[in-house]
Amino acid sequence: MRVDIVGGGPAGLFLASRLRDDEVADDVRVYERDLPDASAGWAVVFPEGSLDQLSSVDPKVFAGIERVGTSWTKVEIRCRGSRYLVEGNRFHGIGRDALLTVLRERAEELGVSLRYGQESADHTGADLVVGADGLNSTVRAAHEQDFGPAIEQGSFWYGWFGVEVTAPTFAYIFVDTEWGLFQAYVYPSGQSWSSLIFYVSEETWQSSGMSTMDVEETMRFCERVFADHLDGRPIMRRGPAWSRFRHLRCASWHTDDTVLIGDAAHTAHWSIGSGTRLAIEDAIALAAQLRDQRDDVPDALARYEKVRRDRVEQFQDAALLSERYFDNVGRYLDYEPIQFAYQLTARSWRITFADIARRDPDFIRRFNAWFHGRATGTPTAIAPSPVFAPARIGGLELANRVVATEPTEGVGLLLDVPPAPGRPSATVVAATGLEPGLAAARAAGHHLALLDLSARPVGALLALPPAGELAVLRAHWPAELPVGTVLGLSAGCDTVAATEALVELARTLQLSETDVVLLRPTAGDPPRPGQVLQAADAVRNETGLTVIVDDALRTLDAADTAIAAGRTDLCVLRFDLNLSTVREA
C-alpha cells in the first residue's frame, strides 16, 4: 500500500512512523512545504495522561520526548499583586522544533520517504491521501464539499512568542493597564527559553494602539507591560505573530481514499494545551484502523472517524469553555486571590472540586477555610467544602447551599414543598392568582417567594418586563423576607447573544427589587446539561444577584465544583436523600 501524507507536523510524521512500524504500508511519503531546518514555533505542552498511549505505542518516540523536554506539576496564577501556586497534573513541555526532530528521526529510521520543500504533489497511484497539513489544509480545500468545514473566528488577539527566561512552571499572568487587561501565559520548553502567549481583547488591542503597530513595536510594548514578570528580558519572534483563533469543525473527516487528521480536521483552543495531543491520538487511531482493516480502506477511515469524533468534540467543548473563561476573566478580577486561582484551575469544567482536592489537598484545605470564614465571618483553619457553608438571601439564613425539591432532611432550602416547622423553604407562585398564591404560601410558612416566569422566553420578558407582577410580589410578601423569579432557559442559552440577553433581563429584574433568580431548563426545548450553569455564571458575576441553579446536578462534588468557582450560590440537587431508606439499607 502507498500512503501519501501531506504535512510534516507531529500528526503527519507520527502517522508515517506507525504505518511503517506496523507494516501497514510499504511506501509512505510525507510532503512538507517547509525545509527541515525551518523554525516551527515555540513549545508545546502535553498534559498528564496524554503521553501514556504514546509510551505503549512507540517507546522510542516517548523516550525521546521525555529526554528532550521538561516536566512540572504546579501552575502559578499571578493577578493584582497576588501569586498562587496550585499543584495540578503533571505537564511536559517540549520545544516544537525538538519534538519534530524526534519524530523525523524516528520516521527516517523506519524508512519513511520525507520530501521537504514540496508544497504540492501528484498523488496519482496513492491508495490513501492523508491531510495532516493544519488549519489551512490544501487537502481539505481540494475536497471542501466532501468535508464540509465550518470555521468561526474568536474575538481576542493572541501572539505566540518566546522569551529568554527559564520558567520553572506554567504561569498565568494578568496585568491591568489604562488600556484594559493584558493576559500572558509563560511555560517551560526544556531549553534556555520559555514559550510566551499574549492574549488581549479587541477593545484593548485598539485602545492600546497595538492595532496600528508593526510586530516589532507590539513586542516592545508587551515587554513594558510585562516587565515585572519577564525579568526585563526581550521577547523573541519566529514567523507570523498575532492572529485570532479559528475554530474548525468538519461535517466529515474522510472520503473513500482521503482523510484528515489533527488541525486539518479540527481545532481546539490552545488554552487547554491539547492540540498536539489530539493530533498524535488521531495518528494512533488511524494507524490502528488501517492495520486492522488494511483490505478495506474506506471502512478503516469510517471506523477511525467513529472512534475519534466523540473524544475530539469533548475536548473542543472543553476548550471553548476555557476560551470563554479567558475572554470574560474581567468578571472575576475582584475575586479574592484564592478563589480566582481555584476558578482558573477549574475553567474547562472538566476538572471537579474533588479532582483539585486530590491533586492539591493543602490548597483545598486553605480554600475551604477561606470560603467558610467568609460565609460565617469567623476565621477558621479547618472547614467543610463550600456546599456546607451557610448562605444568606436577603434576610433569610440558610445552613448550607443544597436545595431539594422533595422533603429532605438536612438541606439548606426546600423548594416548592410544604415546609416542616422552622425549615427554610421556597415556594414557586404562578403569575395568575398571584395574590392568593402568596397569601397561601405565607400562611404555610414559606420563607422565599419565587414568581414563575419560566414559560416566557427571555426575549419576551425583555420586550415586556413583568414590573407589575414583581411589584405585587414584593408588596404582598414580608419586607424582611426575600423574593425572586424563576427563569426557564432553552437550548443555546449559553451562546454569547443569549447570555447577554439573560444578563440584561436579570438587571431589569434587579431594578424591581428581585433578590434571587432560579435558573432551570425549559420543558419544551431543554438545553444540554451544563448550559444553564454556564448562563448562571454570567448572571451571578455580572449582576451580583443571588443565583440558584437547577441543572441536573446529582452529586455534592458537582455542587461544590459550581459553588467554589462562583458560578452559582446554591444548587438544586436531584438525588435520593431519604435517610429512612439509607438506615433500612
Tell me the overall shape: elongated
Mean pLDDT: 93
Oligomeric state of this protein: single chain
Q: Tell me what portion of residues adopts beta-strand conformation.
A: 15-25%
What is the name of the CATH architecture of the largest domain? 3-Layer(bba) Sandwich
Name the CATH homologous superfamily of the largest domain: FAD/NAD(P)-binding domain
What does the radius of gyration come to? 27 Å
The main pleated sheet reads as:
9 strands, mixed
Annotated CATH topology of the largest domain: FAD/NAD(P)-binding domain
Beginning-to-end CA distance, first to last residue = 62 Å
CATH class of the largest domain: Alpha Beta
Protein name: FAD-binding domain-containing protein
Keywords: NAD, Oxidoreductase
InterPro entries: FAD-bd (IPR002938), FAD/NAD-bd_sf (IPR036188), PheA/TfdB_FAD_monoxygenase (IPR050631)
Pfam families: FAD_binding_3
Describe the protein.
There is one protein chain. With 585 residues, this protein is an alpha/beta fold. The chain has two domains: 2-326, FAD/NAD(P)-binding domain (3-Layer(bba) Sandwich), CATH 3.50.50; 385-572, Alpha-Beta Barrel (TIM Barrel). It contains 20 helices and 26 strands. The strands form five sheets. Strands 3, 4, 5, 9, 10, 11, 12, 13 and 14 form a nine-stranded mixed beta sheet that branches. An eight-stranded parallel barrel has the order 19-20-21-22-23-24-25-26, surrounded by four helices. α9 runs antiparallel to α10 (297-327) and α17 crosses α18.
